[in-house]
Design brief:
12% of the residues lie in helices and 45% in strands. The chain is mainly β. The strands form 8 sheets. Strands 3-2-5-6 form a 4-stranded antiparallel β-sheet, with no helix packed on it. Strand 22 and strand 23 form a beta hairpin. Helix 3 runs antiparallel to helix 4. The longest helix has 17 residues. The chain is globular.
């Protein structure tokens, strides 16, 4: 059934979206398993055993930023201009710089359920249908750990040696996918003999990368432009393949200010100061924000967080507006524009300062639920009023430790 649905989605998107010539980026970083991703998209790849990689970029019309990351090395961002994107291929090669870590011990709160495996590090996790699926590995051997909502492992699924996984991804149908360097593997836990079904990674990203969710009649998608400062939402009719625009979150003013700041910084960056890439990350986080518009399915209703106009809007699936209310974020300067959804309860949350706040979509009010040190988590997920956090930290002996912690919201 998963194969049939994926083929159906391939057909829907292929008919609705026009083909275009794309640019290929390739190079050598000298390090294996470096993650290369196009910022604000799900396009990416990893380097092979020789440190080599090849990546087809999603578009040519707008500036693209490539994010290079690997455990033990400093993150690097490389920008590609529209002029450079006119070429069919671009060689980007450099030597990854090793990361210096603070020598701090891991601290785990005793009253919070957590899991810290004794078999190397937890690379990634996803929560779906009440199952906490954890990807664990050491560069040579990988496996999936399946745990219940209390993070108690009840099953282990070994990953074949031919598969070099990088992360887990929950797709628009709520299924968990295993991302690898060259393929995407759909995880079928009901088939013990063949739990991993391979799909070409480039094809999967082209088809599924922008997908948000699927209803009985429509596939909903989001695409971003201007380095993620603007978002466009649309849907495709499953039966007719007709594409229908829905909402636009216009961040052109924000993008222009960000672009002007980076242009000035590039011309005036001190020799002994931060790199232009480090400065860009700081400016993006501290001064500007990417498009924070969010479209979700809550039961039978569509919920749109319209940050352009400071509103939360609810629609039925015929796009009839049912209700709207102003967004009430009491500390806008501290608000982190990440909208989190609890799919089991159809509740919505966001971070304000160090607090996870529940958002009342009928009134726009936010209510603090849990204080969280958001500076050190690497990934979060919600399920049935539980917040799951993947944390990583180096010990005083320089060993990397990782664990998943559960925080009860109520």
């Amino acid at each position: 059934m998963k194969k049939i649905i994926l083929l159906l989605l391939c057909g829907i998107v292929s008919v609705a979206l026009f083909a275009q010539t794309k640019t290929v980026v390739y190079g050598n970083l000298g390090v294996e398993n470096v993650n290369i991703s196009v910022l604000n998209t799900q396009h990416g790849t990893v380097t092979n055993a020789k440190g080599q990689y090849t990546l087809m970029l999603p578009e040519r019309n707008n500036r693209i930023n490539l994010h290079y990351s690997c455990i033990g090395y400093q993150d690097t961002v490389v920008g590609i201009t529209p002029k450079q994107l006119e070429r069919d291929s671009i060689n980007i090669s450099f030597k990854m710089r090793k990361q210096e870590y603070a020598l701090n011990e891991v601290s785990i709160l005793a009253d919070r359920p957590h899991f810290e495996g004794d078999w190397n590090i937890i690379m990634d996790f996803e929560v779906y249908d009440g199952i906490v699926c954890m990807l664990q590995g050491n560069g040579n051997k990988y496996r999936l750990l399946l745990a219940d909502v209390d993070i108690k492992v009840f099953d282990t699924v070994p990953i074949p040696k031919r598969i070099k996984p990088t992360r887990l991804l929950k797709d628009c149908m709520g299924n968990c996918q295993l991302m690898a360097s060259d393929s995407v593997y759909q995880i079928d836990l009901n088939d013990k003999t063949k739990p991993f079904i391979a799909t070409d990674r480039y094809r999967y990203n082209a088809v599924m990368g922008d997908c948000l969710f699927l209803t009985d009649h429509h596939l909903y998608l989001r695409t971003t432009i201007m380095q993620g400062f603007s978002s466009m939402f649309y849907r495709i009719d499953v039966a007719t393949k007709e594409k229908q625009p829905l909402f636009v979150d216009d961040g052109s003013d924000e993008y222009q200010n960000f672009f002007d700041e980076m242009k000035f910084a590039a011309a005036n960056m001190p020799k002994h100061g931060p790199s232009i890439e480090d400065w860009e990350r700081f400016v993006r986080i501290a001064w500007f924000r990417d498009s924070s518009a969010h479209l979700a399915l809550a039961g039978k209703k569509l919920v749109y967080f319209d940050n352009d106009n400071g509103m939360i809007r609810q629609y039925d699936q015929n796009l009839k507006e049912l209700k709207s209310c102003p967004i009430d974020y009491p500390q806008k300067s501290d608000w982190k524009p990440q909208i989190l959804q609890d799919p089991a309860k159809n509740k919505f949350y966001t971070f304000i300062g160090y607090w996870l706040n529940e958002i009342n979509i009928n009134t726009g009010e936010t209510t603090p639920k849990a204080r969280i040190d958001v500076d050190i988590y690497s990934k979060v997920a919600l399920w049935n009023r539980h917040l799951y956090i993947l944390r990583r930290q180096h010990t005083s002996l320089g060993k990397l430790r990782s664990y998943i912690e559960r925080i009860d919201i109520d």
